[in-house]
Amino acid sequence: MSGPMTRRPSPRSARWGRGRRRLRRRIALRGGPEAGNAPVEFIGWTVVLVVPVVYLLIALAQVQAASFAVASAADAASRILEVEQGEAAVAHARVAVGLALADQGVDADPATALSISCADASCSAAVVRVQAGVDLPLLGTAGLGQGIAVMDAARSVSLAGGAP
Questions:
Q1: Cβ(77)–Cβ(130) under 8 Å?
Q2: pLDDT value of residue 69
Q3: For residue 5, what pLDDT is reported?
């Protein structure tokens, strides 16, 4: 029946209609015109956001470890100087400082990290100070960013027997 209500498409428009349907079907099957970009975007955002955040966390962890190391080194050295006297006490205090710093992975020379100064004229009390520098992760080994933050801890101690 062919009447005014049923209209047959012309062969040319039917061909274009089929082509459009095929194109839409292909785009839908492939995932759209942006298919395949998700891995590239994921890698890009990972490099831009995640890598700096992880680097910052590692740097802050190293600063925290150095802070804890100098505090425990100052405590250990002050305890030794409080009970021992003479040059042996200073040598033992340096060994204690070296162990406390190495325990937290801080690479500092105990001889230069530890300083002892008299707190009064009779030198019956002293101030024990421990200092250690923190390098930037990965850049410290290359010579960049060495000693970027210096951690410092001081303790006051009554010396056993007078002068250190």
A1: yes
A2: 95
A3: 63
Joined tokens for residue 37: 């970009």
3-state secondary structure 1-59: CCCCCCCCCCHHHHHHHHHHHHHHHHHHHHCCCCCCCHHHHHHHHHHHHHHHHHHHHHH
In the block, tokens 């839908």 appear at: 28
DSSP element (H, E) containing 154: strand 149-158
What pLDDT is stored for residue 4 in this prediction? 59
Whole-angstrom distance, CA of residue 116 vs CA of residue 100 = 17
Distance CA 74, CA 6 (A): 97
Contacts of 135 (CB under 8 A, 6+ apart): 62, 141, 145, 146, 147, 148
Count CB atoms within 10 A of the CB of residue 47.
10
Below-50 pLDDT ranges, the chain: none
Calculate the alpha carbon distances from 33 to 13, 22, 29, 79 in Å. 25, 15, 10, 71
Q: Which two tokens stand for residue 87?
A: 């040059």
Question: In this structure, what token pair is assigned to residue 93?
Answer: 């205090």
The predicted pLDDT at position 18 comes to 63
